[in-house]
Every structure is written in C-alpha cells, then in structure tokens.
Queue: 4 jobs
Job 1
Amino acid sequence: MSVPICEYIRTGGKRCGSPALRDQRFCYYHTGQFQAMPMTTMFLEENPHPRPGDYPIAGFQVPFLDDASAIQIGYMQLIHGVSHLRLDPRRARLILLALQGASANLKHAEASLPPVPAPEPNEAETPKKPPASEGKAVSKAKKA
C-alpha cells in the first residue's frame, strides 16, 4: 500500500514530500497553512495593456515564505513596488523587515535539519568494471 504524498510545490519547484492527510491532497502543515494564511496582496498595479478577459489591475501576491526562492520573489516584488511608487515607504520598510526576518529564520531552520542521506546508486547506474583479465590485457597493450 503506497502512502500519498503532499502535492504542495514550493516556489523553488521542489515538492513537499510529507505524507498527505487521509483523503486530502496536502500534508498537515500545508492544509493548515492554506486555512490560516489567505493570499495577501502586497500592492496593486494598473495593467497598461490588458488583453481581452484580463483585469485592468494586477495584484502582486505575497508568496508563502517557505523557501529561499519565495523570499527572493518577495524581495523582487518589493523592489518593483518601491521603484514604481506603488508602495509607500513605511509599508515598504515593514515588508523589508519581514522578508529579512523570514530569510534569517530560514537559515536557522535549515541549519537545524538533519542532513539528507545521499540515495544509494542503482545497479543500472553503477559503472561496471571490466573483468580482471581484460584490464591486464589493456595495460599490456599500453606498455608495448
């Protein structure tokens, strides 16, 4: 019997890997995360050339800060919002402090995790050594 794996994919593209709750798509943590943290808009920006069916205003969502890639996206969105005058300086400072705190917390969290053991190579992936007799014949041919 196989155990279903959490379907949450982090911003960096890595899958969560924890077992999913029974009859659920996500693990305990990510099921609670979606319920406790609704998506928050960092700032809104007018879409200068909306396509048919697009909204005239685009919202920059705050990513879930669960890995380094998400924090990097948060920094990029902050820079974009400040440089285009979409964020007032006070709010930008608060977001910057939050991102710095998340970055420092991530470093401490990763340092406290046990190292992941390297997977054992499969027999198909392991290069096969030539038999001892072939190796000697090759070395004799090189000497001649």
Job 2
Amino acid sequence: MLLQREMTAAGYRVRLADTGREVLKRAFQGEPLDLIILDPDLPDADEAHVLEHLLNRVPALPVVVHTYASEYGDVSMDRDGLFFVEKRGSSVERLKQVVHEILIDSHSQRQKKIERQSGYELEPSNR
C-alpha cells in the first residue's frame, strides 16, 4: 500500500480499514483519531453514506477524501471538516501537505480551547 508506506515514512501512525463498515467502526468506537483519509473505493458501502456519517460525527473529525474529482461531483465541497485531494501525479505529496496543515490547525485549536478553559496562556516547549 503506497499511501500507507508514504504516510508512515512521513511520521504518521496509520490505521487501515478495508470496508466502509470498518471505517465507521474505527471513527465511532475505536481509539481516538486525528483525521480520516477516505478512499471511495470501499467494497461494501455507499461512499456518500459513509461520508455523511463521518461528517456528522461528534466531536467533529476532519475527513480528507482522496479521489478523482469526477467521483464526487454531487457532494458539496463547502463543508467544515471536509477536504478533497485529487488523485493524480503528485497527489501523495499534496495529501501529506494537507494532512500536515489540518493537524497543525487542529492542534492550535485544541491549545486555544485549553487556554480559554484554564485562563492561562500556554507557551510552546523549546525541547
């Protein structure tokens, strides 16, 4: 699996799901996740159904759809937490960039929430 190898080499922990049912199980019942990369070629599920469940998850979980744009022409791309990366030549590099940006933003939002709740401003570690 090229994508798994590339994301692992970039320092990410990767958990694979072979079916739509497994994607939903991991998203709602498994260990905490930072985001989901969804490839619509799932053998057992209607991708729109899986995507809709993921986007309605509480707490929200960013979903990156790695696909051909023509496959999702009927899905609104104007939704919070939904990102598309088109499969083409250097899409894996673009995917790594998008994942990095999402995780940085997510970390920043969590840190601000902690600061608001505690009344303290947290300083970055210089380790």
Job 3
Amino acid sequence: MNQGTTTANVHRSKWILLLLATVLIFLAAPSASFASGGIYWNNLSWDGSGMNVGDCLANQGGCAGLVAGAPGAQPFWQLSGGAADPNFYLTSSVPLTFTFELAKADNTSSDTFGWYDPSNPTTLHVLFLGTATPGTTQTLPAGSYGFYLTDSTVPDTWYTQSLLNLSGEQSDQHFVVFDPVSSYWIGMEDMPFGDSDKDYQDMLIKVTPSGSGLSLTGTQGGEWQPWSTVPEPGTISLLVIGLVGVAFKRRKSVR
C-alpha cells in the first residue's frame, strides 16, 4: 500500500467518524417524539425526555406502565384547522367507568379532576384527587358530561368548555381527548399556559362505556386527527450507522 492510499484512507476514516459524531449529537438533542407536526399537545415535557401524553399512550420514552395498558397512537380531537377545540363535552347513552391512570405533575397533591353538567356548569362534582392510586375507578350513569381540573396551588380551574375558564384563558384548552374506539383517554395540563410545558399528562384518565353509545360533542366543530410515532433514537442510530457502513464498503469495493 503506497503513501497516497494510506493518507486517503485516514482522511476517509476521519470523515466517517465526524459524520457519526454529528448524527449522535443530533440524536441527543431534545426533539419532538412524533412524526406529525403542529400537534398542540406534542411539546417537550419538563418532567423529562419522552414524557408528554403521546409518549405515555405510545408506551415510549420516559413514560410507560399505564394501568390499563398503553393504547398506542390513537386519533385525538381537534378543530379542522389544527388547533385545539376550545369547547367540548362527552355524551353517553350507557354508564361510564373512569379509571385514574397516572399523574405526573409537580402539583399532583393540589389537583382535582371532576365533572359537571354542561347545562349547569356551576355545580362541580369530584371524581379523583391527583393523589389517587393508579387503577382507582369511579362510575357515572348515562348522561352528558363536561370535565374540569382544579389546581389549588395556582389557584385556577379549567374546563373542557374553556369559555368557562377565567378571563384571559377562555381560548386555552387544558384537555386533550384520544379515541381508541373502545374507550376515550383524557389528558390534562394543570398550569396556566404562560407558565406551562403543555405536555398534557399532568393527569391521565381512561373513560370506558359499558357498551356502544359514547360520543364527543364539539360546540365549534372538530374532527378526529391521526398521528404516528417515529423510531426511537437508538433505532435511528443503528440505521444511520448501518447505512454509513454500507456506503463505506461500497466505496471501498469501487476503488
């Protein structure tokens, strides 16, 4: 092997190492967990990497171990333009079982989740405190239900019909609903948006009807929007390294 060939090989090896280092640095940087863009609940959680509500439902990142099992990337409710629907409630012709799945907020001990009659929103009924044990259930009869979340530390209360929120927060939707066909999953954000990570997993509730007959009513329209996960960083790293190896081998054979 002559000096020129040796020098070329050294330079080539340096470029490959530089490429791999760049890829690994990129993968180590915080990034969204999902392929779809413009999702109002898909934000980096202050609780840690891979900890927003989508990570929890997809059983990936730092959020795993839901009591009822992770349903995966199921459609969520939003306005047709991509924003959160600021006003919605659920209607069911059959009894509903509510399961407390998890609470990840710093203010967990101050949080209260409950329901109200959309026709009488001044009367609030408690379902769960933020300190409830995962797996705890409550049952409600058939009917129409709006939901609220109170954080007594702030203090503030937010409603699925956000026009009921305090002045200045009436367009802020603190709830997201996912529809895995057999049950709904409700994720919540328990801080004012001006001081919030908007990860929507400060409390996560599963709503299961005893039969068919559960539906969501959006007072401003809306639609079920699909989303999808992307490969874990480790998987991407292996793919990139494999592609670099193939390219290196091909270049060597051509030479």
Job 4
Amino acid sequence: MNNRTAIFLTLIAIIAAGSGTACKTNSANNSATPVTNTANTNTANTANTANTPVTGISLATPTEAYKTAYALRKKGDIEGLKKVMSKEVIDFMTDMGEADKKTLDDMFKEMVKDPQNPSDEVRNEKITGERATLEYLKKDGTWKVMDFEKEGNDWKLTLPKPDPSEKGPKQPD
C-alpha cells in the first residue's frame, strides 16, 4: 500500500470513527471517567441517537461535533459532513481526489459506504486551546482518540497532529 493510500484510509477512519492507523489508541484505560472539566465528556446515549433524524448541526463542543458527524454519516449527508470537517481535512480530501480524478463529493461518497461503528459513545474530551481530542468507542470495545480543531466558533474533525511528548525513532549518530 502506498503512502497516499495509507493517509487516505487513515482519514476515512478519522471521519468514520472506524479503526484508523494514525490515531492514538487508549484501550488500556477503559474507565468511563471524564478527565476534563467540559460538560459533555462522558456520553453513552446510543439508544436515542441511532434513529434520530439529523435536523441541525451542532459544533459547539468536540463531543457534539463527533455526534453530529456520526449522525450525518449514518444518514449519508455529504453536504452536512463537509460542514463538520476542518479546512485541513477538506483540502486534504480535495487533493487526494484530484490525484485520483475524483471530486470532493466522490471522496465523501466512498467514505460513507464503509461500515460505521454501531455507537456514537465518547468519553474523555480534552480541550487545549484551539485543539481537542476525545475517545470514541470502536466496535471491538476498545477506545480510539480523535482530533478536533476550532475554526471560528465551531469544533471540527481534523487530522491528527503528532504528540510532542512522543519522540520519534532515534537518529543514528
């Protein structure tokens, strides 16, 4: 698999709340205890969201942005999904599409065809300035980290940034 394909698959996983390869995993800590002082850090309202029609888009918090994206994807709402993605994601998907002679809409249509997690359950929302993360529940019962960034007053799904606390491979002397 080439690097472009791997990045695209990672992006799909980020957007689709599937199992992305570039996201940070936190399966060791499966407690549902929130770690920040935000209001919506530990939400497990799966029964009420599964068949609820999406009537509006809420991007007021990372949790709301995630749940909105989940509902829009489930509904297949391409235009709505574009509104919950950061400029960085839209630009990346546009570039990927152009390289494959596909439109941005074609890229989103491919994404919504992939299976989606059965739940929109999230926990541990953490906001640091204009960036945020939360953990979402994967279908295998593990938790995965998803990244967000603030654009204006809205929280939007974005590409993961390297964790500055994690050091890369040691360089030869």
